[in-house]
Write a structure and sequence with these properties.
- This protein is of the alpha+beta class.
- It has a single domain, classed as 2,3-Dihydroxybiphenyl 1,2-Dioxygenase, domain 1, CATH 3.10.180.
- It contains 2 helices and 8 strands; from the N terminus they run E-H-E-E-E-E-H-E-E-E.
- An 8-stranded mixed β-sheet has the order 2-3-4-1-5-8-7-6, with helices on one face.
- A hairpin with a 4-residue loop joins strand 3 and strand 4.
- The longest helix is centred in the first third of the chain and has 12 residues.
- About 5% of the residues have low confidence.
């Protein structure tokens, strides 16, 4: 598993240049208005959304898992703890088909636990339809 940090950036090319140098890592996936890095050390999935007008620079946080059943286990843990959880199975988001579950922390920051099932040539949903307790999501789904 590895942590995910999804950021809204004003200038995607400048951000790609900066983070490539900062982590000494190449871009893993690059699409219009979107890029991600799969960094081994530290284990991090860094996602960049070009969004010059975004109020917040942090879009959302996440945990990427790699084994079947890990998203389901996270869903059960969240629900058992009394937390709202929004499940999305086989959803296309951020140029990938994924299984995921969303939760929102008390100050409104969105978290997702997800597993990539396959790459996609389409971005997919702009953002999930979260229950009212989740607030209004920014652009970005993964």
């Amino acid at each position: 598993m590895r942590l995910q940090l999804a950021l809204n950036v004003r200038d995607l090319e400048a951000a790609i240049d900066f983070y490539s140098k900062m982590f000494d890592a190449p871009v893993h996936k690059r699409k219009p208005g979107y890029a991600n890095f799969s960094i081994e050390n530290p284990p991090l999935k860094l996602v960049l959304f070009e969004s010059a007008d975004a109020e917040d620079r942090i879009n959302h946080l996440g945990v990427e898992v790699f084994e079947e059943g890990e998203v389901g286990a996270a869903t059960e843990r969240l629900r058992s703890a009394g937390l709202s959880a929004l499940v999305e199975d086989e959803t296309t988001c951020c140029y990938a088909t994924q299984d995921k579950v969303w939760a929102e922390e008390p100050d409104g920051l969105r978290w997702e636990w997800y597993r990539v099932l396959a790459d996609s040539e389409t971005f997919g949903q702009a953002a999930p339809e979260l229950p009212p307790s989740f607030g209004e999501p920014e652009r970005g789904c993964c």
